[in-house]
Amino acid sequence: MKQSLELRLGQRLAMTPQLQQAIRLLQLSALDLRTEVNEALESNPLLEETGATQTGTEPAVSTANNNEPDALLEDKATDVQMASDAPADPGVAAQEWEGPSDSLIAPGTRQHTDRSTVFELDARNSSPTTLKDHLLWQMHMSAYTAPQQQIASYIIDSINMDGYLDCDLATLTGLLREDGLQTSSDQVLQVLKSIQQFDPPGVAARDLRECLLLQLEILSPNTPRLELCQQLIADFLTELGARQYHKIKKKLQIKTDVLQLLVEQIQSLQPRPGSVFSNTNTQYIIPDVTTRKRNGVWRAELNGEIAPRLRIHQQYKELIRRGENSDTNHYLQQQLQEARWFIKSVENRNDTLLRVSQKIIDHQQDFFEHGEEAMHPLVLRTVAEALDLHESTISRATTQKYMLTSQGIFELKFFFSSHVSTSEGGTRSATAIRAQIRRMISSEASNHPLSDHKITQLLAEQGVQIARRTVAKYRESMNIPPSNQRTTL
After folding, report:
1. In 364-390, which ranges are continuous DSSP H helix?
2. Domain limits of the chain?
3. Whether domain 419-485 has CATH 1.10.260.40
4. If you ran DSSP here, which 8-state letter would residue 169 be given?
5. Residue 317 burial (10 A CB sphere; 0-12, 13-18, 19+)
């Protein structure tokens, strides 16, 4: 066996703990960063916070006190749309239904009638937070016999989050018999009818038609056009969803203005009665970056209200300097080094976020002046090359980071979009084209909405050459229904 000594040269990239920490902090949202800072302050005695301040070159900006023109957040009202049809699946129908904010029946409250008891959510300080708990509470307050209460429990267990009954009567009857209760479908139906009088109005319905009719039943008999509205839902809900208004007017022998009032009354009802008990948590958006116009140019500034300012605790630092070679001193020295790394990582995060934001603003100055239709095409590589950073760094710096602008609050990723060629040889941002399509649709004649083909032609006249299917894709991405579903009276 021959032994030899061989020397090999090579390079290997290893991520240090400091680099891993910097990367992790960069991809955190403002709320997550706040949590991370609080945990670091609790675990490291050498870290202390001196108050929020601006870490960039510009002074701190408070969105509540701004001498420059305030950033306006526009609430754009959406048009009231009817469902395209009334499918047997109430969940599908409810997803397609949109109604105005001021309903005839306030969600979660039962109007008083001779046939029902009032159950108001606000009347009970210990109100349950789930639909099931709310229904069970009403069940225990009702004069049910023991068998009826068992049936009611089964029915309530079969009601989904939208408030609809997911199980048919035959199946419920079979389950109850398997559980030892000798009952019939008629008895189950009787209990179901009583639960359908519970709050919220329309609960325990088996389809959208029944849900809406239940809500109309609790109205006063003197409500204008009540019987006609009930007939419209009972016999013409499918035609109503398909916007076949001419057919409805002919069948009911009514005029356009009367049908318009009926449609508005129906749209004020709640297609998902259980949604008032939704368990979804409200997500709050805190802008990481604000914008201000200086000398005719928009500039980026870190949000001084959330940007943490950290420093080393001076008393502990003095202890380290005077300390002996003890275990306590070694511990403090280790904490000192970790505190310095953490402060440096936070500073690097803020610096990268500010640089990326400013580069985005430089590229999209027209957007800040004129809105989405003035957006320019922009990809991650463009910003990465301009800042001499990797594309993955740009991606981390723009994910879950928000910018407060004169046009509203936007995630930084919003400012990146692909391009579409124009007939003049230039390019347009896909975001700008979507905004253009939205503007066309918002200004269309309500009784003659623009088809995707017509929108394609109008865009071509303005130099934007895209296929009809692309227009349809952009329209669907904005949750705008097709032209046949946008027809109004």
Report:
1. 365-370, 380-387
2. 17-63+287-415, 90-277, 419-485
3. no
4. H
5. middle
